[in-house]
Design brief:
Rossmann fold; UDP-N-acetylmuramoyl-L-alanine:D-glutamate ligase; 3 domains; six-stranded mixed sheet; 20 strands; 21% strand; cell division; cell cycle; cell shape; ATP binding; cytoplasm
Amino acid sequence: MFYRNEMIENINQNSVILILGLGISGKAVAHWFAKNNIPIRLVDQNLNLSITKKEFAKYKNIDYVINHNNIFSVLHNVSKIVVSPGISLGNSSFSNLLNLAIKNNIEIISEIEVFAQALLNLKKKNNYQPKVIAITGTNGKTTVTTLTSFLINSYGLYAVAVGNIGKSAISVLEYAIISNNLPDVWVIELSSFQLTTTYNLHIDVATILNISPDHIDWHLNLDNYIKSKISIAKNAKILIINRDDEYILNNLNSINSKNIYSFGISKPKYTNDMGIINHNCKKLLVSYHSFNKYSYIIDSDLLFIKGIHNYLNVLAALLLIRSIGIPIEKIFSFLPKYLGESHRNTFICRINNVDYINDSKATNIGATIAALNSYNNKKVLILGGISKGQDFSLLLPFLKNIRIIILIGIDAYHIAKILDNDNITYIYANNMKEAVIKAYQNACEGDIVLLSPACSSLDMFSSYKQRGETFSQEVLQLAKNSQI
């Protein structure tokens, strides 16, 4: 049976829902409303009319907009706008349209907000009471989301991971309803974009993993970016924070939650907080009880995912899981079985005693710093893409163990000016194949060739995944050729 959500029931049948952007979330929302016979208007800069019409051919009441410049026409009779995450409210080709919508009190929401309304309706009408875990942060979101879901499923409950991870929450919910297999736990990865236009997601436990400058081009300034991240605490019963993060700590006064637990690199000092202690040259993950007593969780050597940033990700996941009532000692044995995410510090192969590492998911400076700190070896770093307004001088203190940097992408020359200030050696590459060849030519035995771009990939590739796959393919081809 298909349940109409509360939002759909309250919509005037004579009004229109405007779907702005037809990516994964935009199409999912369009199908959700169209199946319920709600008039929708589809707008996308790259709208392929014939393909889109074919996809939605079985539905009625769909309006296709080719030219969105006539904003009055586009907004005619619109009651709500569902905006795709990549579209900035204040810095995009749709800004005039969105500003006019705000002036006319047209609500602008995300696909996650549509999901949240649907979930509230299911709770009210069908007594569906799942646990909701929400995860945000500049870096580590996907790892913590997938690890949390993996551990909960290993324990025996049914958890699904949705959101910014690439799975539309509303599509997964729709399928779960139709198949009569609703999850026990929703694990939702939330970007700053999604949080900006999500208002009614009721969260059992949320975490802010870390905050570092990112997406300044989208948010216009750092304060707006920080506010979007902190806003996850608004509807959360319990909040998990990184106690080592200065941006989070400096904004604690704006967080009303009384139930806050923390994780960090340091020894935990408060009951139920988690941290890392050094013991016999090993890093042990622990939980604090009282009177300087710690409960051992796991030796970091037993984990497949390596690096301090990943040990913090593990602690965050465990705190989230414990907060929904699962005894975490029953899932410790599953921790070594988690193999990590593709394109995140992924070993590709070794050529002439040089390791090639794919960290294409590092789309900001903070992620690249984490990758650099994971290896003691000399590095050949492949860096660049769309810089998103980041301050690359923040990267300079972490480049002391770099043999050479290979710059790629549209903002390569901008990054080069920053590197010149610190006399760091760099060269340019026009494409990934050239970057891999130049890395091979400049690397010495024992080095690491690290693709960790600190930038968006969309100037050269369709996604960070395609960038990582291209790098991996070129490296494997190089390995094959070097054996001839």
